[in-house]
Amino acid sequence: MSGSNPHIAIILNAGMGNMIPFFRLASVLLSNNCKVTLITGKPIVSLAEAKHLNFFLSKNPQMTHLEYQILPPEPDSKADPFFLQYNAVRRSSYLIHPLLRSATFSAIICSFLTCGTIPRFAAEIGVPCYVFSGASAKFFSFMIHLPAILKDPEIGDKKKNSSFWEVPGLEPFDMSSIPGAFLNPKHLMAVDAMVNAKACLEATGIITNNFEWLEPETFSALNSGRVLCGTLPPVLPIGPLECYEVEEDQTDCLAWLDNQPHESVVYVNFGSRTPMSSDQIREMGKGLEWSGSRFLWVLKTTIIDKDEARQEEVLGVSFLDRTKEKGLVLRKWVNQQEVLSHPSIRLFVSHCGWASLTEAAHRGVPVLVWPQFGDQRVNAEVVEKAGLGKLPRSWGFGLERLVEGEEIAAKILEIMGDGSLRSSAKKVKEEAMKATEPGGTSHCTIMKIIGS
Ligand code: UDP
Ligand code: UDP
């Protein structure tokens, strides 16, 4: 990219976990004198996305906003609404081409999950294209191997025996950490992943909300030409991406946190779209209560936004009454970037969405990692290895089994008392800060991409 004031097109993908890092990236580009055009598809899946997008646009009026109409979703009423949306956005990617011709862009940034025809089109019009991967580098390396993995006629048996998949240049993948959907070539997720895995090879680079220190072996393998026989573009960590201004927290959780002692609170939040079953919610409640700890619990029971059931109905009035001195249960969106920065937070119980994990890494908050689906199990292994979290393997992956209150309470107490985890999480924070400050690895990469 060359010249002053580079003009960058950012093509947004669906879901808060994808949208938030893109807004962070757009903010970094704007603060480095870039012009930014944000391209979004309609309709949008959740109210949360619509609210955040509108707020972001209103705060950054200098940005251009272009919209296109997304093709109708596949008629599969049982599929996850966000997967249907990724698929529809990916199939609609050719509708974005005219928008990419409407100005002289110095670079195009799109999401790995929906990149479709964009990298090839960008190459045709001679504009550098960066594909953004919103998962750990380890999970990304699995995704780019997916076309080869799915060609293996023995894949079904390998998955059943939860054996390992050997990959050149990388540690073997433990197949039990990979959700079945990815290993079923007919599943929507696998179909999309295979298209995107091939498409991203035509990009100028893969950028990711990550920092080299967190996954050194994986970045080194990906960038040494050993993976995919040198056909992979450079994989460039540019994170953890900084916070940007979000709408003021409508809950009183920050005021509540102000009244809690230093490093005393367990914060539970399973992201924007991972619901817990009613049984698991009750066991979680017991676990928090029996641990005797203070807690802030953002409770979610539906995939899209929130349902109308009141928390008294889900948890019972007596639970809320017994724990009211120590705990705050909310069924609303909280400002997680501020919650995790609050000095009262001691432990984060997370579903291991990559955006949440990078936020915890940036603030050095230890994490009890409880992966539920998708990339989350692999992400969990990555942060455990880096010293940010602890993964209770006996809890299984996702909804494999009901984890009981006693186990949850014991694990919370064990991790809260783990001094060595607290120090290693602080080390992760130091390295994250080093990467993002001027001269740091992630900062330099962003500057190189911008061309300044
Ligand atoms: N988030 C938030 N408040 C909430 C729930 C989520 O601010 O109550 C933000 C969180 O900080 C993160 C994103 O939403 O930036 C969730 O992304 P992640 O990849 O962790 O999980 P996903 O929601 O995609 O499963
Ligand atoms: N939200 C969400 N996941 C949740 C809870 C809330 O995405 O688990 C979003 C919700 O869609 C809305 C915003 O957070 O955009 C505010 O939440 P809520 O609807 O609870 O607040 P209200 O509009 O009732 O004040």
From TrEMBL:
It catalyses: an anthocyanidin + UDP-alpha-D-glucose + H(+) = an anthocyanidin 3-O-beta-D-glucoside + UDP. The keyword Transferase applies. SUPFAM superfamilies: UDP-Glycosyltransferase/glycogen phosphorylase. GO terms for biological process: anthocyanin-containing compound biosynthetic process. Pathway: Pigment biosynthesis; anthocyanin biosynthesis. Its EC number is 2.4.1.-. Pfam families: UDPGT. GO terms for molecular function: anthocyanidin 3-O-glucosyltransferase activity. Gene3D superfamilies: Glycogen Phosphorylase B. Keywords: Glycosyltransferase, Transferase. InterPro entries: UDP-glycosyltransf_plant, UDP_glucos_trans, UDP_glycos_trans_CS. It is an enzyme of class 2 (transferase). Belongs to the UDP-glycosyltransferase family. This is Glycosyltransferase. It comes from Hypericum perforatum (St. John's wort). The gene is HpGT2.
